Amino acid sequence: METSQISEKFSHLVMNHPCLGRAPHRGRLHLPVSPACNIKCRFCTRSFNRRENRPGVTRSVLPVAEAMEVVAQAIQLCPEISVVGIAGPGDSLATDHALDCFRRLREEYPDLIGCLSTNGLSLPQQARAIAAAGVHSVTVTVNAVDPAIQAQIIDWIALDGRRLSGAAAAAVLIDSQLTGIRLLSELNILVKINCVLIPSLNGAHIGEIARVTAAAGAAIINIIPLIPQGDFADWPAPDCDDLQQARSAAERFLPVFRHCRHCRADACGLLGRDVSAELYRDVSAENTFSHG
C-alpha cells in the first residue's frame, strides 16, 4: 500500500511533511523540549551527545522560550523547513513543555506544520489539548497490541502517581494508545504509527499491529529496526529480509513509510542533509533527563 493512499483530507500534510513519504524536498526541525518520560522501554538509552543519529539523543534540552529562537534560526539555515516536530528526548506528553511550545508555534509560525511524537500513554487525557494547540500530526510508537508481547518490551509505566509493570502495565499502555488514536482520528489529526521491529519478539506480530491501529484510525506506519542497546544490547538488529517481511505484513493494512533516518531529538534539515550541528554549535549539553 503506497503513501499516496493516505486519505485526501490529509493531502496538504502528505505534500509538505517529509516523514509521510512524498515531500523529500521539504525539511523538518525537531525541538528537544521534553526531558521526562513516563515509560521505561527496555531498548531505550537516552543520551546527550553530538555524534549519534538515533531517537533519544540530543545536545541539550531547550526551554520553550529558547526553542522559539531556535525555530527562527533554523528557518534561516534551511528555508525548506515545513514541519516542526517534538520527539523528546523524553515523551512529549510527560510534561507540559511540548504543548506549550506548539501553542507558541501556532501564534508565531502559523504556516508551519506541528508534529508530536509520543508513546501514547497520556493520549486519552491529552488528545483535545493536542488539537487545541494546533498540532497537525501525531506519531504514536506502538510496539505490540498483545500485552504478553508488550510486557517483554517495557519495564514499567508511570500513571497517576503509580508505577505499574508486567502484563498489567502493558494492557494499560495498549488501551491508552488505541483509545488515543481513535480520539485523534475523530479530531481530524493524522496519526502515524512507529513500530520498533524486534524480529524474535514482535516480528510475526507486525501485521496485527498495523491491522489494529488502522482500525483505530491510524493513517500510515513506519517500521523502525531495533538498535541493539539497553536491555536489548545483545539482541541482533533486523536484517533486510526481516524488515521487508515486516513491511509486507504491515502494508496489507496501512501505507508504509520507507525513508526513516533514525532522527535525533534535535534533528534539523532535509532527510539526508542535516544542519543541526550548525544550528546548535554554541549549545553545551546539560543532563536533565528524568523518568516519571
Provide mean pLDDT, rounded. 86
The biggest beta sheet, please? Answer: 9 strands, mixed
How many structurally independent domains? 1
- Overall 3D form: globular
Q: Order the strands across the largest sheet as they lie in space.
A: 13-12-11-8-7-6-1-14-15
CATH architecture: Alpha-Beta Barrel
Q: Class in CATH?
A: Alpha Beta
- Total helices: the number is 10
Low-confidence stretches: 284-292
CATH-defined fold name: TIM Barrel
Radius of gyration from the alpha-carbon trace, in angstroms: 17 Å
Q: What is the share of helical residues?
A: 25-40%
Gap between N and C termini, in Å? Answer: 38 Å
Query: Which structural category do the helix and sheet elements fall into?
Result: alpha/beta
Roughly what fraction of the amino acids lie in strands? 15-25%
Explain this structure:
By secondary structure, this protein is an alpha/beta fold. 33% of the residues lie in helices and 22% in strands. The protein has ten helices and 16 strands. The strands form four sheets. It has a nine-stranded mixed beta sheet with strand order 13-12-11-8-7-6-1-14-15. A three-stranded antiparallel beta sheet has the order 3-9-10, with helices on one face. The protein has a two-stranded parallel sheet with strand order 2-16. α8 (206-216) packs parallel to α9. The longest helix is centred in the middle third of the chain and has 21 residues, at 166-186. The protein starts with 10 loop residues before the first helix and ends with a strand. The model is unreliable at 284-292 (pLDDT under 50).
